[in-house]
Amino acid sequence: MIAAISLVLTLLAMIGTAYTLAAVALAGRWRTPADAAAGSASITMLKPLHGPEPMLEAKLTGFLEQDYPGPIDMVCGVADPADPALEAVRAVQARVTDVTRVAASARRGSNGKVSNLVNMLPHAKGDILILSDSDMIVGPDYAACVTNALAQPGVGAVTLPYAGIGETNGWSRVAAAGISWGFLPSVMIGVATGLAHPCMGSTIALRRETLDAIGGFEPFADLLADDHAIGAAVRALGLTVAVVPPVVLHGCSESSFVALWRHELRWNATVRMLDPAGYAGSAVTHAFAWSLLAVATGAGGWVIGIALLARLALAARIDALVGRQTAPLWWLPARDLLSASLYIAAFFTRSVDWRGSRLHMAPNGRMSAETEIH
């Protein structure tokens, strides 16, 4: 019996290693094209905000300082007029006049971000709407690349892959490593094989008429995975959601193990809820953890060596792609074991922490607040 278990675990580790090496080979496809032709349509950057964010002023400014010939304005929204995020918005407004502040407390559903977007939308001027999370960092070619992709035939929305960058302490770098070395390769493999159809909060760009055709933001007001649902609604129109370079950066601000665990458990549990079979299949992404278990049940030590070398090669490849070291490579074994633990824990999770509220997750993707945390 032990020998059979060891064989199964060894096979999982080797399949995971093959997956890892495939991601190494695919990473080169995600470099920003040098000849992205910018359009000139007017753009509104939609920025739903909540609470303080490290370097928020610089992040917002980056979305406005673009090598793009058309007009760009920005709408920043909060639900509380006293939200500290408005300090950064005011600082940006002092230098860039085409920035609108929206502070509206009207609640439109369980999802605070979508409620915020509903309140913000009437203030948007652009023909193209680009929604992105407050913690994203982009370069000056961002708007040109996004509008170029959106102009392609049959494309209804554009989303971008992202890597992580730690912004506070060591725990934020651990969180960033999970994104860069774990999540980003899974996006690359999923898109290349056609097994995944992501639409991510890093960027959702769509024409105003496309947003109107899916009913605006209101239909997503009670959904936990609003980004995924917006992408599904666009595809239901017979349009595609293009996943294109550049790889942008997600600023990680987790300052403790508890904060990191809660955040990533919510991510994992959301994916499991939306795609149970796909989530189960993502077991292959945990090659190093399976190799340790395989050796513990009798396999040769070579299993660990091969799996670990492949994972280190992938981490180095991703860091080269984004032009920076996410975290020290010697952290990778511990980071991989943490990711495997979260993967297993998500199978037993039915509610998650989201911005101070405990949310119950229903099988249909909807959510409801259980207890408010003060």
Give an overview in words:
The protein has helices at 2-26, 56-64, 85-93, 112-120, 142-150, 170-193, 208-213, 226-236, 257-274, 276-281, 287-296, 302-322, 332-345, and strands at 43-48, 72-78, 99-103, 128-131, 136-137, 155-159, 162-166, 204-207, 240-243, 248-252, 351-354, 357-361, 367-372. The protein has 374 residues and is of the alpha/beta class. It has 2 domains: 2-28 and 259-372, no CATH class; 32-254, Alpha-Beta Complex (Spore Coat Polysaccharide Biosynthesis Protein SpsA, Chain A), CATH 3.90.550.10. A hairpin with a 2-residue loop joins strand 11 (351-354) and strand 12. Helix 1 (2-26) runs antiparallel to helix 11. The longest helix is centred in the first third of the chain and has 25 residues, at 2-26. The protein is globular, with a radius of gyration of 21 Å. The chain starts with a helix and ends with a strand. The model is unreliable at 369-374 (pLDDT under 50).
